[in-house]
Structure formats: C-alpha cells, structure tokens
Design a protein that fits this description.
Elements: H1 2-18, E1 23-36, E2 42-46, E3 48-59, E4 64-81, E5 86-92, E6 98-106, E7 109-126, E8 132-163, E9 168-170, E10 179-188, E11 195-209, E12 212-223, E13 262-273, H2 297-303, E14 307-308, H3 322-334, E15 340-344, H4 356-372, E16 380-384, H5 396-402, E17 404-409
Parallel strand pairs: 15-16
Antiparallel strand pairs: 1-3, 1-13, 2-4, 3-4, 4-7, 5-6, 6-8, 7-8, 8-9, 8-10, 8-11, 11-12, 12-13, 14-17, 15-17
Length: 413
Amino acid sequence: MIRQIIVIAICFTAIVMQAGAQGLYIGLSGGLQGMQYQLQNGQSQQLAGGSLDLGYGFRLGSHWDLLTGINGGVYNTRATLRDGVAFTSYQVDDAGSAFRYSVKTAGYKETQQFFAAGIPLLLQYHTQGKGVQWYFDAGGKVLVPFNTSIQVSAAQLVLSGYYPDFNVEVSNLPKHGFGTINNWNSNATSKLRPAAALSAATGLSFGLSPGTRFYVGVYADYGLTDLKEKNDSMPLVTYSSTGISGVQAGSVLNMPNAGQVTLLSFGLQLRLSFGSARPKTNTTKEPQQPVTDTTGNEQYEAIEGPVVFGHLDETRIPENQKSHLDEVAAIMKQYPAIRISIVGHICDDENEPEDTKVGAERAKSVAQYLRNKGIDGGRMDVSPVSESDVMEPFDPLANYRNRRVVITVKNKK
C-alpha cells in the first residue's frame, strides 16, 4: 500500500506540473489525530499523530484558490474499560457444549493505530498583500485507511463460563480456558473502510520571496462516515479450549458495544507554497518587420487605448472594456503584420497595495481574450510592471486609472 501511495504521489506531481495551476505546496500537520466513538462501559480518546501533505493550488480569483493533492497520516487512539465490568458472549467448548463466556477486566487498555492516504479538496480565501496574509481553508477529504494495528494490555483478566444446561459456573479450570490472567498483553486488528471528513484550517502566511509563502495555522478534520466495518460480533477476549494461555484479544472495535467510529483530528499546521512550477518555454521571437500595409495613426490610437480595471485586485476583463478589445482584435486581423506588447499595471493604494502578481494576471487576461478572438499569441509580448505606478495624492480618479493594461504597437511605420 505504501508503494502504491508513492506511485500515486509521483503521478500526481507529474500531472499538476503540466496543469494550469499557480503553486505547489508541501505541508506538515501534527496534533491529536485518531478516532472518536461512544464506548459502553469505557471511553476513547485521540492520541498524538501527524500528516504529510503534497498538493497544488489553482487560482480562482485575487482572493480565492482551490487546493487539492494527496496526503498521508498516522492516527492513534486509546480505549479503556471500567474495571470489574463483565463482557459476555456465547461460545461452544471442545465437547460441543454451549455456555455463556464472561470476561472481567482490570486496567484494560487498547492503543489503536492506523495509517491513511487522503485526497483533500479545499477552497481557500486569503487576503492580499506582499507581506503577511490571513487565510481560511474549508472543504473535505476522502481517507483510505490501511495497516491497522491494536496493542492490548490488562492488569488482570478473569475468564469464566456459565453452563445453563447444568446450572454451573466454571472459573478455575485454566487448562480448559477458565481462570485468572495477570499482566496480560496481546494484539489484534480491525478492518477499517474509506471514509469522508470535513476539513478546515486558518492562520497566517508570510511572503518569503516572489511566489514563495510560509503558512502557520491550526487545522481540524471531522469525520462524517463510519470507519468501522460491520464485523462487531467478536468477544473482547477469545475463548481457548486448550488453556488460558492461548486466549487472544478481540478489541473493543470488533464488539457490539462500540458505536459509530469516525475520524477526529486537530492541531498545528505548517505549509510552504511555491510559485508556478510550469516551465518557461523559450520562444524565439520573430524579427519585427515594419508594417507594410496602410495602417495609420487612427488604427494605432484605437489599439493603444488603455484597458482599465476598476476594482482593487480585479483581474477579469470588465464588461465595459470588452468592446475596446474587440476593436483591437478586428484591427489586428485586418493588419496581420502588427505586433503588440501588453503590460499589466497595478495601483499603490495607500490602504492595500496591489501585489505585482495582479498586474501579471491582468496582462494574461487581455492576451487570453485576444487569443480567444483569433489573434496568434506569437504576435503579443506579455509582461507586468515591476512596481506600482506613482500614487497621486487626493486624486482617486488618477489612482483608479493606474489599475490598467497598456497595449503598445511595437512595429509602427
């Protein structure tokens, strides 16, 4: 199973490297990770565990990302039983006689552990800013558990059998499976099935370099579906007709008195995200040829009108700017020798300066719009400005116009 997870992780990485995603991330989570369930005559509690995440973020807007990937985690739970409670089941001895088998415990404890591979799907909201940002993730994940192991111990076991046909209770025949065992240890297993859980996380991220951020926060996973297979008919401790030394643990997870078993985990989360891992393609620019048609200043002026983005961090083409870009596309179709540069600008707003990535996204949006209108991408050079335009004090209109894309004809006559 571990080998399969490694293969899946490698395949996932190869796929997302070719996808239109904005960032690879790796993460480490740790805290209380385990199962929660109601246990009659006992209790369960989560123990320390951790998870390792590998994923990708897909940008949906200036404040929104979609996160997915694969993770692997270890989950631990402790279950204890109240001393002196009798757990009964019906058994048949080696002579074929039916009896009621009774197990009383003192100091009974189970440590239940399993590993799980998960696929999360989270929607992330984050603030803007070059330095510190606040983020909140919400969504769900599917978990596939494997390698379940259960370590069982008890200070004392008292094993007895009641034969209703003879109205006799046997409690001191060790060679026939009835008697007292002190300082008992054993192990068991239980089948767990895939389950779904709600997931949430929140915290702060810190810009380390362009395209690289470090996240620190808290997380929680809450199970929605039952992890336990329906094999809850085993006794707490098995009956051994050859002697009490042969008894084995059955586990509380395999007994009817354990309720629905769901996932519960919460703790601290660290994550490191990187910019787009898509390799840059080295394209040889065609030598610029002067326009040999009858293009005039009127066409140049029509092309070079700015594309203004009204709202802070807006990257989608505003509806009132599409007619201008339609005209640009029409002129470029009419004059196929025209080449243009597309430069995305940002506004240095005094309350919340725009990230330089916003300028890049604006330029990409304009170029994509023109490509959708049939303009070859080789005729367009796309780039952002390295820093924001100078802010004009007490002039909101001027600062509003700084949020724009500038189109320039590169090979005028």
